[in-house]
Design a protein that fits this description.
By secondary structure, the chain is an all-alpha fold. It has helices at about 5-30, 40-65, 70-90, 95-115, 115-120, 120-130, 160-185. α3 runs antiparallel to α4 (about 95-115). The longest helix has 30 residues, at about 5-30.
């Protein structure tokens, strides 16, 4: 799974979670009020809250399916811990369980975004993208500019002709020196 898709899914999940809680809480509050409120307002807030609740669950299921096996177990333990702490705090202080669920959701999203390469199987995400014909490009990677280091050594180009001519001149000089040295030895 690429980082952009994971970031978008986690943001949409958090927004859906907040809207579902808000709309369902609003519908409950509207039903408890003593004066008459239009039925359309009550039912529409419940319908919108239910829609965003289902959207939240669908995103959770998609992200759960893309996880590696050992992270699925850790995720289930995390959700059970979230529910347990939320129910315990809600039994002590009314309506504080929602804050606990919200904080656990934010923490879960941060962990998912931070460790996206470790948690998810990339081939599963690519297979789902092919099945549903979805393309989500990852963030562009920054290219590091390499600093040009000045060279300390000096390169001199020497053609092959100059090397050969110097070698032949040396050979001629050496052969002349040998002849002269041989003559000297014979003379002595």
């Amino acid at each position: 799974m690429n980082k952009r898709a994971n970031l978008y899914l986690n943001i949409y999940e958090l927004i859906a979670f907040l809207l579902a809680l808000t709309c369902i809480g609003l519908s409950i509050t509207l039903k408890e009020l003593p004066y008459e409120i239009p039925f359309i307002l009550k039912s529409s807030s419940l319908f919108i809250g239910t829609f965003f609740g289902i959207l939240f669950l669908l995103i959770e299921i998609i992200l759960f399916l893309l996880m590696k096996a050992r992270f699925k177990v850790i995720y289930i333990i995390y959700i059970l811990l979230d529910i347990g702490i939320g129910v315990f705090i809600n039994s002590k202080y009314s309506f504080y369980g929602i804050i606990v669920f919200f904080l656990f959701s934010i923490l879960k999203n941060i962990i998912r975004i931070r460790f996206v390469n470790n948690i998810y199987v990339p081939k599963r995400f690519q297979n789902y993208c092919k099945i549903f014909n979805i393309t989500i490009d990852d963030f562009k990677k920054k290219k590091e500019k390499k600093e040009e280091i000045p060279e300390k050594s000096i390169k001199i180009k020497v053609s092959e002709n100059t090397i050969k001519t110097k070698a032949t001149k040396k050979k001629k000089n050496q052969s002349k020196n040998k002849i002269h040295s041989n003559l000297r030895t014979k003379e002595s």
